[in-house]
Protein 1
Amino acid sequence: MTGKEKVLAVLNKEKIDSIPWLPFAGVHSGKLKGYTAKEVSTDAAKLVESLLEVNKLYKPDGQPVMFDLQIEAEILGCDLVWSEDAPPTVASHPLADSTDIPEKIPGKNEGRIPMAIKAMTEMKSRVGADTALYGLITGPFTLASHLRGTNIFMDMVMNPEYVTAILEYCVKVANAVSTYYIETGMDVIAVVDPLISQISPAHFEEFMAKPFSAVFDHIRNGGAKSSFFVCGNATANIEPMCKTGPDSISVDENVNLAAAKKITDRYKIVIGGNIPLTSVMLFGTQQDNMKNTIDLIDSVDNTDLLIIAPGCDMPYDIPVENTIGVQQAVHQTEQIREMVKNYEGSTIEFEGELPDYANLERPLIEVFTLDSITCAACTYMKASADDVKKHFGDKVDMVEYKYTEPQNIARCKEMGVKQLPSIYINGELKYSSIIPNRSDFIAEVEKCL
């Protein structure tokens, strides 16, 4: 079978002999050809050249064309901050001080959509016969958050009618962009919504069930398969996500894949995941990546309805040999299992000292993130901490620890941080993979003053 046939067979709930492999090489693709993240995010020719290198080196069964959650937001008025080694991030929110509902729907010829379409069309022609191609759109809730900012979380309590209305608008945007991508021949449309992990199942049922069901129905009616991509600790929302009817769900390292698969299996939905991006793929060895992949495969009860993939968009600087190691472990599982059966993984030792939390001069807010520049859920968690820091000024200290730095990985282990993003106040966990209500957050800090 070709890789494309394997992916589509799994999504059609057919039993096959091997597991599909889906590397999320977004801006990392540019690293392979010496291009910056901004170059592959703005230049179709450089993007296609880089994606073809991904296809050659990593032998994917399925492959995303762009992993960029800012394309729609940019067209709708959000300012972006660009990076040389990461996707752009949203820097402004046009509805931060307004509860208006926009009417504009991104056109096929606006913003960077033409560039995405050009790259998709070229990739379809070059590798589309053998590789399942994924078109990624921004999910309704993350798009609403881009437009409204962190106020969207307060709105869910104080102004639920507005949240419903803005999500209905964002569904229209999602459906329009997914149609453009389906028309290029994308096999799968992935609805990427990192912020789903930051809300409760009750809020999911109240606000998200109908919008996401509508998007997946639209994709299905367009003749493509669908995937629901979520980051962070989405464990509590796996079953609600299943009920919206995607063909597959993709989770990151915060979710126990084996436990989540028991739920998705009940709904006959494919699950994809969830090789750790930084501790293994970025900072591990090739053997670490092989061993982790084998252990991941062996952790599930069965390998039906399973796709092996990184936990999310791959960091720019992941060593090529590490991703090749994952590919080999997926495609040559028995051979690699034998090779690493006695291998013990490497660890990063913490070399610093934790603060003396009992004797701090002022309250200390610590934000543990994957990276607030590249992870949308982390962006908004960090933004909520920035807002509270601004509120209190010099009365409090605030620091972010990004999981993209080796010593911060070790610090997380030393602190016992289990989920990202998380917020600690004076060394105590206060918010774990859920963005706090502003008034509650302020009240928690005031207790420490």
Protein 2
Amino acid sequence: MKQLPTPDAARSPLHTQLDDLAFCDDSDFKTLDGLLERRQEFEAGQWVVLEDDELDRTWVVLSGWAIRFKTFEDGRRQILEILLPGDIIGLYAVMLRRADFGVETLTRMTLAAFPAAALIDVSTRAPRLALALGWLAGQGERRLDEQVTRVGRRSATERMAHLFVELYLRQRRIGVERSECGQFPLTQVILADILGMSHVHANRTFRSLNRDSLATFRDGRIILQDIVRLATRCQFDPSYLEQPAVPEDVQATLGSPA
């Protein structure tokens, strides 16, 4: 892990998401720039957070992929979510001081880190930004709800197809080129651990999608072949990923962005 020089933060994936929300003003983004000044680079396969670590900072993913997970004493692992650029790790670290999850990088990553206590100042000095970050946390909660539903009630093929469509759409929403949105640095072991399957079952399920020309594995990456048919296969409803307008009463309370 090494310290990096600070690049221009103007259009980080987090900025893109908040800008699309049309809720923050220039002073909010200036405050956000200050939070993202300190950056670090991690290689693939490194730990960012260890389970039961003391959390004294909040991380923002600027590039790369990671997983957030919980493990059992016997080594089994449940991946809770896949972290993409624009996602936040430890948003509530100022209140919850110990991690009940681990975070490991899947690819080389760049992350911004700031003291967790800085969010206390943000909540008073930049309430619009604080509320927008809370909105992002709410979006993460909606994805986690869908993850529980996906693992609990969908068939194996539906689970995998649903995850693939979600990852495709999440990348589209942070500005990844359409030609690259259907490529994931995921192994079948990772798929098994996020979808609640045995590794053998995950392999068999992926082969089924491959036989139907829906997805393939090439050069260490999963490549989607037909996103429309994948969405149809799992009856994908994108509403949980959609960005609702800021309610008018909230806008009225805080005023329109400058």
